[in-house]
Amino acid sequence: MKIAVVGTGYVGLVTGTCLAETGNDVICVDINAEKVAKMKQGEIPIYEPGLDLLFQRNIAQKRLTFTTELAGAIEEARIIFLALPTPPGGDGSADLSYVLGAAKNIAQLVKDYKVVVTKSTVPVGTADKVKAVFEAHTQVVVDVVSNPEFLREGVAVDDFMKPDRVVVGTRSDRARKLMEELYAPYVRSGNPVIFMDERSSELTKYAANSFLATKITFMNEIANLCELVNADVDMVRRGIGSDARIGKRFLFPGVGYGGSCFPKDVQALAKSASEYDYNFKILNSVMEVNERQKTVIVDKMKKYYKEGLGGKKFALWGLAFKPDTDDIREAPALYIIDELVKEGAQVVAYDPEAIENVRRAKGDMIGYAEDPYDALAGADALIIVTEWPLFRTPDFDRMENALKARVIFDGRNLYDLQRMIDRGYYYNSIGRQTIT
Ligand code: NAD
Question: Which residues form the UDP-glucose/GDP-mannose dehydrogenase C-terminal domain (predicted)?
Fold first, then answer.
């Protein structure tokens, strides 16, 4: 099938590449000319494990191409995916200007039947808005389909190639058949393509992300309580996670959720609800608790360093909002850095993939290390913010030689408490006993 993907970011590039992988002809359109030029040279603009291989293969086999020209890209496409940003607008609602703007441009160009698919996360009623844009600008029949994306950065290729489920919102039989055909290779093991109306589909995505954000936030609150009552959140987590109704996943406490999706989607759902005069109380609490959780580590540090953080030097491991990505959007590390610098501390950070993105955002506000142990040199403490696998079993001897003091503030509970006791650390993690 011939497919156009408009917007070649994390979602668009994974979608385009994975659709090419099963034999479709995919053309990716982006307004960022520099990015398109790089992709044409075979240079992948994001870090996403496993994507490069597929990206190179499909470029080489000429099923995956890139352009800045919308007109040429959509001409032959049967299905046009919109994988455009939907950032929070000033009032917290999703900014639909990218999606509606692209819809208008496409509407002015279409000459024959197309299925236009919103892959972006968009509020309930957006498919109707997109449809109205088409009706206002063209006589050509176009079906507007909602097909929210559930991929997780870091495992996006697997999530796309073997999705737990695909959600498609359409009431058009014609569009449904095309979408069924398109997704058939990805659900061969029997996972469902769930068809529904557009509004339910749009809400499904927000409900999923908001539920997950709530689950994390609930555990963060349990962890905070564990510290007060002298309980161990790891034990509580295992105790509740083995209940099939609760499940083991998404129960790890930390320094608050971040990323390009949870913060904006929770906010947008709360805002959508309020537009219908519904006060979505849980989501308001989730946002409030998450704000507090982002700086819980700094609060702990302020308590520990009674003389203040000014003049101290801290090593910070992990900048990406989660492991296996270079994405730093709404990353808790950025909030922690801001707080520490505000307090007059010096920060030297290490991350396997996200340093360049942070350098662009924060410049020389902090130092950057090429290697995790270099970051530790002469530091008063280590702060762990992202649970990259390589931080799990570090060389503790090297660590101790580099650090000025054996002090760790761990926002991800990476280390065994007994080990920290044995090695003589002050070790402060989330929802567990503080080792002193
Ligand atoms: P992104 O910012 O990484 O990518 C967006 C791309 O669109 C950029 O390359 C940008 O240059 C391009 N663009 C902007 N305006 C354009 C235009 N008019 N024409 C062509 N290209 C244009 O965003 P993303 O993370 O891929 O997210 C896209 C959507 O998918 C959002 O709605 C997001 O909520 C949703 N989503 C994201 C994820 C995720 O993990 N990142 C997961 C599921 C859903």
Answer: 315-417
